[in-house]
Each structure stands twice: as C-alpha cells, then as structure tokens.
C-alpha cells in the first residue's frame, strides 16, 4: 500500500481511494512532487489525477453547459463558497456527486444542494430528471442533472454559507461545513437530511457569545487521520478558536485560542495547522495528539505588505489575511506557505518562518485590503499564481534563494471592485497545454496558457456583466468539466470547449 507523509505507512482503517476521489477547494492547498494534497497524503498518485481529457478544441460541440438555480425559488442567495465533487470511479459516471453551498440562511430555504446524473456524453449518458426540473437550464444537448435533496431531505443549515465551501471525506460518505451562525456540521453525503439528522457542534454557544461565526471558512479534512480542522472568529473579531474534530465524537473537539481574529480557512500539514490572522500574521498551531498549542517565536509571522518585510517600514499596517495559505511541501527538504495580503504575494519557509515576497499590484495604489483569493502553485514549474485588483500574475519561486521571478500577468475582462477577483486561481493540464483558470467580477470565467499568461491565449465563458463569479472553481480531473457558482444563485457546469 502506498505511504503517506514521508512514505510512512497509512493509518490503519483509512480507506485507500482506488475508486473515488474528493475534489474541493482544499485539493490544491497542499502540493508536492507527488501531486495535489490527496496524492501527497497517499505517498503517490492515486490514479484519479491521471484521468485527463482529450486536447482542448475550442470549436468542439458542447456536451455540458447546464446551470441550476439553487435559491429554492426565493429569488435571493448567492454562491460564493466552493462547490465540491466526489468522483466515484476511474472514469466519470452518473454516480458522481456535486455538492453546492448557498449563501442563504437555512431559516428561509435549503442552503446545501446535491446532484448526480451530471453528464450526457459518450462516456456517461445519464438519466434526465423526472418530472422535468424548472430550476435547471439544460445544456445544448438537452441535459439537466438530478437534484437529490428535496422535501424532507432538504438540508437547511442554521446561518449562511458565506464564502464557506463544502469539504468531503476521503471515502465520500460525509460532508463538513461551517456557517455564519457559528455552527459546524457533518452531513450524510448520501441521504442529506435536516440538521436534526446530522451531527452539529454549536461553537457560538461554546464561546458564550453571539458575535462568533465562520466566514471565508471551509473545513480541512486530513485524509490520513480523518480528523477535521477549522477556525472560528469570535469576540467581535479579536479572537480566533482553532478546532480539531474527531469523526467518532464531534461534540467534544479539542481547541486553542489565538489572540487575534480569523476570517479564513485553515490548512493542516505535518502535524501543524496554518492560518492567516486578522492581525496580518501567519499563525502556526501544533497538534500534539491530546492538545493543540500555539507555536511560539518566530511565530506568528508578520508577512509583507506592499512588498516590504515586517519591520522594514514601520508606517505600514498589516492587513487582515482572509485567503487560505497554499503549501509547497517536500521541496528539497523544506516546506513553504504562499499567502496573499494587501498587494503582496509572500512565501514563508515553515522551518524558521523566513519570509520573502513580491508586489501584485493591479492599479498602482497602496491598499490595505485583502480578498479570499488564494494562490495556486504548480510544483512542476514552481510557478505561483495570484490575483489582485483585476490582475492575474504568474511568478516562478526559487526555494534555495526564497526569491520570485519577474511577473507575467494579464487582466481579467470583467469589471469588479478594487479587490476583484475573489475567485481563486486553479491550474489544470489536459493533454498538451497547461492552463490557469479564474472567475472575475464581470461574470467571466477566464483561462490562459499557464506558461505565458499571454493575452492572445486568453479564452472566456461569459455569464454577462450583471453577474459576479466569486466562488472557487472546481475542475473534474477525469474529463475537464468545470464547476463554479455565481452571485445570481446559479451553479454552472461547462466543458473546456465552452471557453473561447
């Protein structure tokens, strides 16, 4: 059996995903020479990542460009959190499931959706919903997915899923979510059900205050131990509680408090939890087994703002970090964390917290604002991709010198505010060209040649200027199908050929 971190044996009882793979916003948060974080945890590629589509052909007929209104007929609600896919086999099939969070209070309507029968193509000719579903706009070949959780099975979670994505267990049987009401949920991925039928932890009640919530927060499932890590912002944004949940008993998590607020997702690797704080610093929390402890000096580490180190310019104020870190691990014996804050992209060496950075500035102004757009890292080329102020940039990171190369960049097409794009960059390589993808504030899904970032290589799929794509993008490794949500409350499936 394949190994996990450092090629040590897998934990007994953890199923090896030969016939399934979770794909969500956390998949690219830990990257090594082995592949994404699942491949890293399993000590090598599991096989699912090698399922590639044919070469992208821009004039190919569409076989999948449906979209579905997940506002439940309310006319309100957006999708700004990450959908998640559980690919159930070695090729895409009608059993694959898509899960979609909605920024809508569960008191008014369902705010978590599940779909199967996602495809109608030469590999999987899935059934149509019966009766026809009026909330779906069918693909060009007339297909709609099947919405699974309706009526008594509808999932109505307390609070909203505001920039909070869906995390999927290794075997695809459980979903984990955070809400703005300070609730952590475990949902049966097959049956759905009301909150009464799911395991729930009320973090707001535990900290004893109403000003406590999960925002910009997707739980992180450790595929080796099956434990789940997340962080709660409380006490009017001045404190953060980092949790570790054990699947056997979600009601008694262990936790530790930070002396700052937090509005971001955490990443777990090598026995440590990493997250950005409201104080503009990268924090590290150690999992000691029975307890969690906050790492001391040189942690927490203040990272760059406007291309300056902490302390080099005392007039600078560190911005709150609301994007999740992306880790480059097992890289020449070292591990690194990439973060965006204000106008900066930074790299922090995890062994000693040494930090360097480069300015990503799309408008030439100094801002102390941040957004939830996390960097993407391609281990093969050591290219890091970050987005700020409608600018999407590529730079190559050299670990030995902790330096960044000159930026290659282009602008997104859609207009947005000064913090746009909110969507996170994703790198994906079909046969042939490697591509970079990101959504923008003008309702465009953008794709570039990831090596050149040349304007001439840019292709788009447009929802229209009245839409805003703030959700992260999920790409099915099997065939290149792309999933993303919009502020119109619709979830989209498009094929690579729809980008032109």
Structural class by secondary-structure content: mainly beta
Please report the number of helical segments. Answer: 2
Question: Which oligomeric form is depicted?
Answer: single chain
Shape: globular
Please identify which CATH superfamily we are dealing with. Answer: YVTN repeat-like/Quinoprotein amine dehydrogenase
CATH secondary-structure class? Mainly Beta
Radius of gyration: 21 Å
Kindly identify the CATH topology: Methylamine Dehydrogenase, Chain H
Q: What can be said about this structure in brief?
A:
By secondary structure, the protein is mainly β.
What does this molecule look like?
Mean pLDDT is 84; it is low at 1-17, 46-63 and 305-316. β15 (228-234) and β16 form a beta hairpin. The chain is globular. The strands form 8 sheets. A 5-stranded antiparallel β-sheet has the order 1-4-5-6-8, with no helix packed on it. The chain has one domain (5-498): YVTN repeat-like/Quinoprotein amine dehydrogenase (Methylamine Dehydrogenase, Chain H), CATH 2.130.10. It has 500 residues and is an all-beta fold. 2% of the residues lie in helices and 34% in strands.
């Amino acid at each position: 059996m394949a190994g996990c971190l450092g090629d040590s044996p897998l934990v007994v009882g953890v199923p090896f995903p030969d016939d399934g793979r979770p794909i969500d916003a956390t998949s690219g948060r830990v990257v090594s020479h082995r592949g994404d974080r699942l491949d890293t945890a399993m000590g090598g590629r599991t096989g699912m990542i090698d399922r590639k589509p044919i070469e992208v052909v821009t004039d190919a007929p569409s076989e999948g460009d449906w979209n579905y209104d997940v506002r439940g007929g309310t006319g309100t609600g957006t999708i700004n959190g990450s959908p998640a896919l559980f690919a159930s086999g070695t090729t895409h099939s009608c059993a694959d499931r898509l899960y979609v969070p909605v920024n809508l209070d569960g008191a008014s309507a369902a705010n978590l959706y599940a779909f199967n029968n996602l495809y109608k193509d030469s590999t999987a000719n899935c059934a149509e919903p019966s009766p026809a579903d009026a909330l779906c706009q069918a693909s060009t070949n007339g297909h709609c997915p099947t919405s699974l959780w309706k009526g008594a099975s509808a999932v109505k979670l307390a609070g909203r899923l505001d920039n909070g994505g869906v995390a999927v267990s290794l075997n695809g049987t459980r979903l984990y979510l955070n809400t703005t009401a300070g609730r952590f949920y475990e949902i049966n991925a097959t049956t759905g059900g009301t909150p009464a039928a799911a395991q729930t932890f009320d973090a707001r009640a535990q900290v004893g205050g109403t000003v406590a919530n999960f925002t910009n927060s997707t739980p992180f499932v450790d595929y080796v131990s099956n434990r789940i890590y997340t962080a709660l912002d409380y006490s009017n944004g001045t404190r953060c509680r980092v949790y570790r949940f054990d699947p056997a008993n979600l009601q008694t998590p262990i936790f530790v408090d930070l002396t700052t607020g937090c509005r971001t997702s955490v990443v777990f690797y090598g026995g440590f939890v990493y997250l950005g704080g409201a104080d503009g610093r990268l924090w590290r929390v150690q999992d000691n087994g029975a307890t969690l402890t906050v790492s001391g000096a040189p942690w927490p580490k203040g990272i760059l703002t406007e291309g300056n180190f902490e302390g080099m310019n005392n007039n600078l104020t560190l911005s709150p970090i609301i994007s999740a870190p992306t880790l480059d691990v097992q890289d020449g014996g070292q591990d690194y964390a990439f973060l965006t804050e204000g106008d900066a992209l930074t790299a922090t060496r995890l062994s000693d917290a040494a930090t360097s950075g480069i300015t990503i500035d799309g408008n030439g102004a100094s801002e102390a604002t941040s957004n939830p757009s996390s960097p993407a890292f391609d281990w093969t080329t050591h290219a890091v991709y970050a987005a700020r102020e409608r600018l999407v940039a590529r730079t190559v990171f050299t670990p030995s010198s902790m330096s960044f190369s000159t930026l290659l960049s282009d602008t997104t097409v859609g207009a947005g505010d000064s913090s746009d794009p909110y969507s996170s960059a994703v790198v994906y390589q079909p046969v042939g060209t490697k591509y970079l993808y990101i959504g923008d504030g003008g309702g465009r899904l953008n794709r570039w040649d990831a090596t050149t970032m040349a304007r001439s290589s840019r292709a788009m799929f447009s929802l229209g200027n009245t839409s805003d794509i703030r959700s992260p993008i999920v790409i099915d490794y099997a065939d290149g199908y792309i999933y993303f949500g919009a502020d119109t409350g619709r979830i989209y499936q498009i094929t690579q050929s729809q980008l032109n």
